[in-house]
Give the backbone structure.
Amino acid sequence: MPEHEFELYLSLLSKFLKLNPQQREEIAEELRGHLEMRLEDLAKEGHSREEAIRLALDEMGDAGELAQHFSTIAKSRRRKLIMRCTLGTAVAFAFGLVLFTAFWNEPGRPHEVLHSMAQEGAAGVSETLPQVQNERVAKLAEKTKVFKSEELKKWDAILDEKFELDLLGLSLQEVLNQMATLGEFQIVIHNSVDEMLGDLEGYELHESLSGLSLRQSLRIILWKQQLTYAPRDGVLYILTMEEALRNRDFYEIQMYDCRDFIVASQNANDEPLERNRIRGEAEQLSEVIQMLVGSQDRWEIAGGQGTIQAMGGILIVKQTSDYHHEVEEFLDQLRQPYLAAQAKLAAE
Amino acid sequence: MTNKTTPDKFDSQLMRGSLDLMVLAILDREAQYGYSIQQKLREASGEKVDLKAGTLYPILHRLEAEKLIRSKWDESSARKRKWYELTKTGRKRLQQQAQTWHAYVHCIQSLLPPKLALTLPAP
């Protein structure tokens, strides 16, 4: 029989646990079992029900402290896993690259076929070669194709614009005002910032930033105070990272088409990949993103709100706008070695 | 506190360094769930070891993270239980810790004045 007091305790504990819902539920389930058994035994020893509940909970100790213990253990476990995976990914990546280059340089392989086709082309089949090459070049796009809302596209254009900013001696508030004027948008300081830092007039800056986009400048000046930005409802919010981590309202969904990348990185022959293989690779890509992009705790695997779902090579990512930008940059960087190999091939 | 009926419990400060060893030793006999580990420790120590649930569960989760024990949910009984058992690494660790423990006891014994060492109370 579930005791109301136990459920209260367990839900309080769950709230403090910085873990994903499944891990939280497992811990609650284990402790619930313990509390119930303890209650039965204490009742058998002659304690009244109230007394038994109190004793059982006393033995469990402070919910916040216990949650802290569990979270720390899970965190150190995760750190080990991440270290292993990061190393594993790097090794696999390097290995893949070596294989890839080795493959393409070997005589008699596809580019050799292209060569022979070129010779044939000279002998009359002149249409074939450019077609084949173009098709191959078109296979891996320069940048990851991202599907995002019109609102966010508009913000991207604003934030990617470059300005000269002379911030020496200005307060954080003044700098933000200056940016809003230059970019012609409105900035709203979220309550969480007031609560953590008070008036932004009190924070003086000592940088001068030139040749940077508004986004890069924002990152630099906000990061030091543990702040970040998020466009919403037509204005740019400045909020604490803590708030960005827990407030669902600032999360957006964007889709990243990684199919061309998966095919290019997995398969030098350009044969159609099996659906299962694409799915597996996309899932692996999601894991790597969650481990390497931004701070871990923004992702659901580590108790945050951000998620990634892979659907047939398209990643559906729920994150805050600043992290979306990092995901996009990361995916674009991943293409670079393959693009280089492709360019080399096209040049031959 | 009714000291007459319940024997004096070991000081938690004293037990701190040997909790892992106690848990591993209990699990060496057979698989157990959290509550039964607590009970076994109580029984085996004549109620002198009273490991609080709030201390026991973090220990179990840490030992599992260190791969010294592993867990499995049993859903066949009316009450879902999480059973723990020793892994191969855990068994090895238990052996090492037991050796260290004997050396430690021996060391303390030889430090004590002969008069006190002889009058150790019966367990």
Q: What stands out?
A: Residues 12-114 of chain B form a domain with the Arc Repressor Mutant, subunit A fold (CATH 1.10.10.10).
